[in-house]
Structures are given as C-alpha cells and as structure tokens.
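Re-run with default settings, no changes from the original entry. Doing this only to confirm the output is reproducible before filing.
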Amino acid sequence: MGLFSSKKEIVISNVCPKCKMTFADPERTLRHIAKAHQPKRKFECNSCG
C-alpha cells in the first residue's frame, strides 16, 4: 500500500526542466542536470582544499 513509506519516486522525463533540452534517455537527462545545472562555486583553492 505504501501509506507510511518515506520513499518518494521521482519521475524524470526526456526533457530538462530548466533549459528544455530533449534527450533520448531519462538517465542522460539526469547526467545533464547534474553536470550543466549544478550550483557554481565562487573559488576553490588547490592548496587549502
């Protein structure tokens, strides 16, 4: 039944919700979102971490 389950299903289509780009596979859409729409870091120092 799943009345009290904490697991939520996320439905990903073949279209990116942010830039409306179309992909052949939902997994490619997820990879695109992770790579292209990740929050930008201001600066990362190589010596400090």
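The helical segments are 26-36. The two ends are 47 Å apart (CA to CA).
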